[in-house]
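Q: Fold this one first, please.
A: Sequence and structure below.
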Amino acid sequence: MLPCRLDSQITFLYFKDLAEAAFFFEDILKLELVDDQGAAKIYRLCGNAFIGIVDEKEGHCRAQEKNAVLITIVAEKVQEWYDYLVSRGVRMETPVQRPESFPVECFFFKGPGGYEFEIQRFLKEETARQFS
């Protein structure tokens, strides 16, 4: 038995250039800043799902040149997100696609600090309900 329930989730990403990351999350993705701790900022993705950015000089981890992390954001309007991000000059890794091996519609793009991002929509209705 767990000692208590879990309330939310935060993924922290570490950056050499916190200002570049803050611009991306605030001005490009338009995420709500819910906590600004100076060397760390936390943004709401939706509900109780959050993403945090941390200045590597102050945080627990260090930024890496190559990250083995994929940040996937689930959204209904994949093509609209693609078009919007292209219009903001975000570097796309793929066009909008429907991979044969996964029942999703998605695309991948580069974010600050070398992080990889994906925006996807689940094509199976029962799966989509779990993430909406």
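Q: Good. Now the second chain.
A: Here it is, same layout.
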Amino acid sequence: MTVLHDVDGEKPIYIQIADWLENAIIDGTLQVDEKVYSQYQLAELFTINPATAGKGLTILLEAELVYKKRGLGMFVAPDAQEKLRAKRKEQTLLKIVQDLLNEASLLNIGTDELNQIIEKERKQRKGDQT
């Protein structure tokens, strides 16, 4: 059984569904023109109401990350991965960098020290992948 990360948190479940599907598109689990889970499949997978799953799918549909084929379901749009990468770079990464710089400033950490921290983490992650 697949579990959502923040069921008791502040993020609504339908947003978590949309995020989960977006991640699957970004990492290539869901490929261009591949059929996306139906709201009923998502409801069963996450043990949630089908309407909640449907709301998550609607987010992707409205963002034109998926398209409908009448009677067949929803499929990954050809440019979905590029759109998601641009969105995450512009919104998510920018916010993270702003938060990081604010925290570094508060702790009086300069650019060199901050870069050392980042490089240390990068090297550790590379070591974990081998």
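Q: Anything worth noting on the second one?
A: Strands lie at 66-69, 73-76.
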